[in-house]
Amino acid sequence: MAMVTVSQSFNFHGFFVRKASLLPSSASRVRYSINDRRWLNLDSASSSCRFRNLNSRCSITNTDLHLSDVLTEDEAPQDLSAAECDCSTPIVHLKTDILESESLSLLAETTYVDSVLTALPVLSEEEQNALAATPAHPVGLYALYASSLAGNLVEQLWNFAWPSAIALLHPSLLPVAVMCFFSKLAIIVGGPLVGKLMDYSPRVPAYMGLNVVQAAAQLLSATMIIHAHTVSPTSVSSVLLRPWFIVLVLAGAVERLCGVATGVAVERDWVILLAGMNRPIALAQANAVLNRIDLICEIAGASVFGILLSKYEPVTCLKFAAASMIWSLPVMIGLTWLTNKLATGVLDRPRSCQTCCGESSEEAAVDAGSIVDRGLETIKLGWKEYMQQPVLPASLAYVLLFFNVVLAPSSLMTAFLTQRGVNPSVIGGFSGLCAFMGVAATFLSATLVKQLGILKAGAAGLVFQASLLSLAVAVYWSGSLSQQSPVLFFLGLIVLSRLGHMSYDVVGAQILQTGIPTSKANLIGTTEVSVASLAESVMLGVAIIANDASHFGFLAMLSLLSVVGAAWMFCRLLLNPTDEQRSLFAVESNT
Question: Cα–Cα–Cα angle for 116, 105, 101, nearest 5°?
Fold first, then answer.
């Protein structure tokens, strides 16, 4: 085995090292690498200096080594310690048996080996846009779309089925109102708890578990309603105290809580990992597709169950809904597993602060005896994290839109139009057009993000909605709704306003995805849904108090003010961002 020893005088920015004595050179071709036993013994200051006279093909980069004299291992000095005493830098040993396929010619003293340079390619604007529009895991996204389609279709079918089936039991709306109230209450209280559970649990198993619990709650609810249709009808007051109704309320609350948690996990966490947080166009397109799937499933679910209900008995329709829940569950679980598989296990990636924020086993043992206190602490933590999120104005604007329960295709609008004597076909067409406008908004949102950027696209949607609803309220207060043409114009303005509403719904989701850390996405997302449910409950309470049709104008003004307030709050974020918000949306602020 041959070893060469290179010794040369070096000048490191004023530090001169004398040249060691050299022996005759060896063969002209050797294979070499830096010996692990000997490293350049430089202090911390001089180690970062550039070797001016060092030129080599070794793994050292940005280095110049001037090979002037070489010496074989057989002729190497035996007393290395003596040599080290005379030199402030040790002798470098180069082995000859490291590289297996190539050899390197040692050059003469005046010859230098070419430096190894790393070229950093600079993408053009078109290439950057193409990269921003390309998802990080496109095949995994397609599997996620299929899973969302299977899950949302059954969920939307059930969301239309249970109130319709309960309404056929009694003409009063009280049973449905009670179920809705407790569902909102479950989301308000349990949202942060489930969100924290999702943040501290593996993504895929936790998501599958929630799907199983949701399907079980749906099946239990369907069983209770079928049982109610088989027994003799009773008064409304007695229905609220029946055991089957109590079970139905509890199962409905659990089903809604699980549905919200799985939706938040997909929209605030999964889609970011699959599309890529640093690819805004691809993320906007993914959000648009998910919203499009949800709206299409909403239309399809209501239509399918409505057609079945017009031809068959309610019990038969409920059995069909239960069967759809059973077959869709394994499909969703299989597609969820396939999503992670096709995305090369990206959903298995641990969250950044799971280890640093996790509780110790000792703390967990201490808190285990007080579940209530721990739950309250989790709720407080959820609200605290929600209020401290960097994109709070965008989230509050989203919450304010939930106060708009009148100037929208809601049950209150349906009741108002019915009392006005509007043709039921017109009412049905109004609801259908609002849904299709939402589908159109999912296509528009991706274009807005690409042309205007995330923040400006969100502001455009809110301003558009507020402007059209202002015209709609002005038409109402003009007192001309007694005629058919003003009514159609009033409804048309609301339909068009849904374009801005759904555009912000898609863009706002991407803003929150960008600003909320992945490790807290579920906790903050479920807390946001809780706040939105609270806002909706407050507005519904006001509507219960002012339940006469003559108070519709007052409710319409409150709805309009909430939308205007949302637009103002978001435009304030756009015009006066904080330093943290500037860093999050730095690309936009520079354009």
Answer: 80
C-beta of residue 23 within 8 angstroms of C-beta of residue 71: yes
Distances (CA, A) of 360 to 112, 321, 357, 372: 59, 45, 9, 19
Any alpha helices (H) in 478-520, and if so which ranges? 484-515
Locate 246 and state its tokens. Answer: 């109590």
CA dihedral 434, 439, 443, 448 (to 10 degrees): 40
Q: How far is CA 147 from CA 55, 183, 330, 510, 577, in A?
A: 58, 25, 10, 20, 37
Which range has the worst mean pLDDT, 11-25, 140-154, 155-169? 11-25
Q: What is the largest CA-CA distance in the chain?
A: 112
Average pLDDT in the chain = 74
Q: What pTM, to 2 d.p., does this model score?
A: 0.60
Report whether pLDDT(1) > 60. Answer: no
| Helix ranges restricted to H, 312-410 | 314-342, 354-357, 361-367, 371-388, 392-400
CA 469 to chain centre: 30
Residues 458/511, Cβ–Cβ less than 8 Å: yes
Which position has the higher pLDDT, 9 or 380?
Answer: 380
Taking the C-alpha atoms of residue 280 and residue 584, their distance in angstroms, rounded to an integer, is 12
Sign of the four-CA dihedral 284, 289, 293, 296? positive
Residue 70 is predicted with a pLDDT of 46
Give CA–CA dist 535/529, Å, rounded. 10
Tokens representing residue 451 in the block: 């042309």
Q: What are phi and psi of 265, to 5 degrees?
A: -60, -40
Sign of the torsion angle spanned by Cα atoms 166, 170, 176, 178? negative
Is residue 32 within 8 A of residue 96, CB to CB? The reply is: yes
pLDDT tier at 13, thresholds 50, 70, 90: very low
